[in-house]
Amino acid sequence: MHQLSPQEALFKLNASLQGLSEREAQERYKQYGPNELIHEEESKWRLFLKQFTSSFNLILMIAGLLAFFLGDMKDGVVVYGIVVINGLIGFYHELKAQASVRALKEMTSPKVKVIREGREKEVDIKELVPGDMVLLSEGDVVPADIRLVDASGLLVDEVVLTGESFPIEKSADVVLPEDTPIYQRSNCLYRGTTILRGKALGVVFATGNNTQIGQIAKKMQEKTPPSPLTKALENFGKKWIVVLLIILSFLVLIGVLQGREPKNLMFFAVAQLVSAVPEGLPVVVTIALVVGALRLAREKVLVKHLPAVETLGSATYICSDKTGTITLGKLRVEEYVSYDRLRLFLASALCNDATEKGGDPLEVALLEWLERERVNWKFLRKVHTRLWEHPFDTKRRLMAVIVSSGEGLHLYIKGALESLALLCDKELPEDVWKHHDMMAEKGLRVLAFGYARLEEIPKSIEDAKAKIVGLVGFLDPPKEGVKSAVETAREAGIRIIMITGDNVLTAKTVAKMVGIHWEGSLCIEGKDMEKLSDEELYHLLKRVSVVARATPEDKYRIVKVLQSKGEIVAVSGDGVNDVPALRVADLGIAMASGSQAAKDASKMVILDNNLAIIVNAIRRGRLITKNISKVIVYLLSTNAFEITYNSLALINGLPLPLYATQILWINLVTDSVQDKTYPFTHYEGNPMKEKPRHPEKAFTGKEVFLKVLYNGLIMGVAHYFLFKYLLAIYPYETALSISFTSAVISQWAVGIQEIGESPFFKNPFQYLKLNPYIYLGISIGLLLQSLVVFVVPQYLHAVHLSVEELYYAVLVPVLTFLAIEVRKWMLYIYKACPTERIFLKR
């Protein structure tokens, strides 16, 4: 509608200034439906069932069934308890996500003034239809998308829709090109925005889901992507179960060909499968995420979706809003030039409608500036009586007042320098345009102020002549701590792109102040992206630091393009315009002071609206990522050991070195008491000095695979030769008991070594402080293992062991501990010697 004149818009909508008839309004209501945001919601039953369809959950359920089949009720109950708890948590967050669209419905007041059949009346907002004539004034929330027919001094806050931090002047008489972006459509009002000043009469042209906010709501229904951790574990689960089934099937086949008892072989295979599926991993991951969430809460970050805690540590891009996150979200006088200091102060105080309670953000900023300059503006208003005023005029872009102080009449005026220059009866101050342009190039919004002494009140503003007394530049200033946070993020290998609805100069200025924009980086407008393919846009974004005049669709597309190339994207925002991007981002971060819709669409809410809080949260997220990676290495190492050990013995015709029940017991006294302590491990070094690691690499990548393979082979091969030797000197029952005890202690050794990346003997005392809780877990395991070996060995096919026999039980654990220590020292020397590393690569 912005491309049509008011008369053309009325004609196209078959409407008039007299408004619709009640009958016509009812017909259109039937045709267009209620003026509310309607969306289809997935049934709660389907949402609930969907939580249990992931491959990892299916693996766990199979493992639980097998545990019940073996008579292990405890493991079965634990496994199914994990599945149900995880499912309920996921179900809860799905329901919360559905609430994000509903929150948009509450953004407008329930009643609105309309003209119908030539009379003014109030109707429910949901009853508005295209063609309705709507009356709006200061403080009203716009109830639908409206083409202005008449407007007087209209100023609108559109930050929730466009992100523009400055109020927008609106005019009914303007006709704009069809391709005018939404933030420049000065002749239209959009649902959810707020009238700050003035009055308006307009015709409704879009309601409900056809409004701009309605289009945003449609994108909100897009499914939020699973967290990187969830995707990594999902892929790992599928691969791991396939590997296990192949190996165990192969072992059973060999055993049958060797003439072993099929029933015993199947019993062994099932026990090995139950043990090898790391059913404790989801519990440990949940503990790690909960611990992280609690720590983040103390740092003013509220986590709504637990996997989001880990996503922080993997983030490669932060697409940050400007207003309220990087800046204060509050205008401030940044700079001024005075040609008559006294008159400039008087004009700022008297040609101003703001009060202590609020008003136009620009005028409020002027009062705060006067207070900083120790000017008593309240006193000035008392001694100067306002006799006449010319309200802010969007056409002339100025406001003027005439006051009396007992010394005659005084005209004070403020507005655009272009407007005030036309009213000057004398030459402009020297270099006024130079000063104006210098401020504008810094991204400041510049107001000019004028003064004149009058003999009488003029008939119109055109008759008033004034002189320029000063210029004032406004800026939404950066928050404290943001600049250092940006530098920290850069050192951590995280790119920050500031995406805002503000103009290019303002956005670029703020970005420079905080270090987001630097020499060589690009600052583009949203419209610059339209002609680029996704591939071209991705390569451009690698150099972009600021995207100005961005629409919700632009922000949404940026996130999707980055994700398509494997980037992990965190998005911050507080307005409805941010919702589509928040919804599809790997991590949506809303501001506590933002709209409810933004908070509902996000996975995390920060209580202190500051980019520094987000960067600090990333530090915490990296610690959690590292700890989850460590526990994965530990759990898979112990599983790889058991499979290697049993495979070597079975293939070479030896008796099984571990009974099925012993395998399950080992799982209890090692994994179950050690892995739960990993989330409490402290970080070694500075996490923000490292580059972000993709979750696939951090959790199941080459480095993890090599560690698991090394640990598993060392333990498996060493135990095989030990068991073979023991069979030659001891009865099978004794060799089995030594093997059983050695396997337990070896896994404790691996647990201690894998809590830290640095070598144990580099600084043993510091290493022990990394995680004191793991030694408590080992103590519990030691107590349980001692009970079995010395009190009730018969229940687990074991016998009492002498002191001499116990020496053999600690031989391989010591070897395992030292072997991992050697691996760590080699890696430490490799990382500490870059010169040698470069030489080796050549």
UniProtKB/TrEMBL annotation:
Key word Magnesium present: yes
Xref: PROSITE patterns: ATPASE_E1_E2
SUPFAM superfamilies: Calcium ATPase, transduction domain A, Calcium ATPase, transmembrane domain M, HAD-like
Phosphoprotein in keyword set: yes
Subcellular compartments: Endomembrane system
Single GO MF annotation: ATP binding
Annotated InterPro entries: ATPase_P-typ_cation-transptr_C, ATPase_P-typ_cation-transptr_N, ATPase_P-typ_cyto_dom_N, ATPase_P-typ_P_site, ATPase_P-typ_TM_dom_sf, ATPase_P-typ_transduc_dom_A_sf, ATPase_P-type_domA, HAD-like_sf
CC per GO annotation: endomembrane system; membrane
Membrane topology: Multi-pass membrane protein
Record keywords: ATP-binding, Magnesium, Membrane, Nucleotide-binding, Phosphoprotein, Translocase, Transmembrane, Transmembrane helix
Domain of life the protein comes from: Bacteria
Pfam families: Cation_ATPase_C (PF00689), Cation_ATPase_N (PF00690), E1-E2_ATPase (PF00122), Hydrolase (PF00702)
Record field: transmembrane: 52-71, 77-95, 240-259, 265-294, 704-723, 729-752, 773-794, 806-822
Domain named Cation-transporting P-type ATPase N-terminal: residues: 2-72
NCBIfam families in alphabetical order: ATPase_P-type
Name under which the protein is recorded: Ca2+-transporting ATPase
Protein source organism: Hydrogenobacter hydrogenophilus
Highest classification ranks of the organism: Bacteria, Pseudomonadati, Aquificota, Aquificia, Aquificales
